[in-house]
Amino acid sequence: MDDRPEWMKEFPGAITVCDAAGTILEMNDLACRTFASDGGAALIGRNVLDCHPGPARAKLQGILERGERNVYTIEKNGVRKLIYQVPWYRDGVCAGLVELSLELPAELPHFVRGAPSGGTP
Fold first, then answer.
1. Which of 11, 34, 63, 68 is deepest in the core (most CB within 10 A)?
2. pTM for the complete prediction?
3. 69 has which bridge partners?
4. What tens digit of pLDDT does each residue of 43-55 get?
5. Which residues are registered as beta bridge partners of 25?
6. What is the CATH number of the domain that holds 54?
7. What is the DSSP string of the chain?
8. Over the stretch 94-118, which tens digit does the pLDDT of each residue have?
């Protein structure tokens, strides 16, 4: 039975959640499709660190061990994505990692809020 929250299942970004040891706890539908060639939903229960080589693995270990965040953009096959990897907490202690992968449009507006009079709203 699928007990994921309804909003998470069809969210238009890939969501992967693991625990503090790196065990993948949750993947939404898009994450399963994105990582289909690596096993898709079968990755749930496996260690996320085993899915990443050298530097990427070390970066994920740092997030888990030190509560760091890792935010960057990538482009693959002409598609740009924002990758946002951050720890999640339970009672103030790092309980794991959430990775959001969001497709970025070719033209992405940027607004500076709180700009002096005449700035973009």
1. 63
2. 0.85
3. none
4. 999 999 998 888 8
5. none
6. 3.30.450.20
7. ---S-HHHHT-SSEEEEEETT-BEEEE-HHHHHHTGGGTGGGGTTSBGGGGS-HHHHHHHHHHHHH---EEEEEEETTEEEEEEEEEEEETTEEEEEEEEEEEEPSS-----TT-STT---
8. 999 999 999 999 898 988 888 666 5
Joined together, the tokens standing for residue 104 give 């970025």
Report residue 9's pLDDT band, with 50, 70 and 90 as the boundaries: confident
| Residue pointed to by tokens 């496996």 | 46
Task: Count up the domains in the chain and report the number.
Answer: 1
Q: 43 lies in which domain range?
A: 10-104
